[in-house]
Here is the input.
Amino acid sequence: MGVKCLLNANEISVVRGKYQVDDICRRIVNNYYDMDELFGVMDLSEVVRRFLRLKEIMPRVEQFYAMKCNPNENILKVLAAVGCNFECASMNEINRLLNLNIDQNRIIFANPSKPISHLEYVAKHQVMKMVFDSEMELYKIHKLFPNAELVLRFRCDAKKADFMLGEKYGCNPIRDAPRLLKIAKELDLNVIGVSFHVGCGCKEPEVYGRAIKFARDIFNFALKIGYAFKFLDIGGGFPGELSTDVKPLTDIVNEALNMHFPEDNIRVISEFGQYYVAGACTLTSNILGKRKIQDGNTEKIMYFINDSVHRNFVNKVCDIAIAVPRPLFPNSASTTEYKSTVWGCTIESNDKIHENIMLPELNCGDYLAFEGMGAYTQACESNFCGFSKTLVYTIIDEFTYGLIKNDEIFKTNSNLVEFKLNYC
Ligand SMILES: Cc1ncc(COP(=O)(O)O)c(C=O)c1O
Here is the structure.
């Protein structure tokens, strides 16, 4: 492994010793950054820490990563190396994993309404596990991939979540699930179990208990019509903010599994997305422009930065709380704070990232750091108005390096490079 003092966005930089992500961002700016390109630093050690934590506190549940949340290839490689599997929404996502030589049995295709060409693709590559929630999907699968292993998705919504999915996906567990299972049986399809998704950023831990109870009821019905289910997918939904403690959620999952699925021959999986990556990425935006305005007696400042609600702040459009920035170089910032509005870089007038937050006075070329920007950010970014996509540098610490370096995925095509924080 060569030693470098510059980061390269295609590589995973192994940082020796203790470090702060902010220091790495500052170093990028000071040493080789050309001012106004938006960049982020993704600490993959945090992603792995979260994987290991779940393994410890929710040991019955096998982890799959919902790659739609952040499909950065280095995240995929590192998670694959520590033993995480993958949930995919499309053929292109599956194709990326297969190109990394990730075994097709480590993938679940959990989009309940799959395009025909994607079904043909998974049939060809024998990606067996897939989700359905409608009669139409059963007929499609019967025609194109009749020996697929099917998972029935039912609806069970959290009372409060950042993003509800139930209106769109998941059949009614009482009214529709038995009907769909009977149709599947008539078509001689291989249904192996059930899945649910309580909603992204779940704020009601108890919902996992309710959903696991529904799952048991569907297992019991299935047995009556000749399906001995062995597969339970508890979906995604764990929050990912840095401050999140998932223990209350895992306690409820563990307890519900013990109560409703005491048998140990049931394979239980999860498909978390934001839990792994949200807290792992710090974005560094540049102040492109500034205007002072007078609002009554108050002087306010408007900033224009090189990020946008059409780039990493898509969540803003869905009314989900977004990171509050801080100056990346606090010492050079003034001490007086002003009510500030932070606008995005596109010409669109709703492209407002924050309004009336307190910030010290900043100038053109200064940097703002936004923490906790790894989930549904770069994955949802558009190039509206011609701005190029965020450049993301990935780093890991020595401990994580030790865990992954000998995995097959890094043997054939290693992009692990030692990075000396104080080298030049
Ligand atoms: C089928 C499926 N699984 C998993 C996820 C990941 O959800 P989260 O990021 O809330 O964990 C999603 C998100 O939309 C999803 O649709």
About this structure: The first strand starts at residue 3 and ends at 4. Residues 82 and 256 are 27 Å apart (CA to CA). The mean pLDDT is 93. DSSP finds 13 helices and 21 strands in the chain.
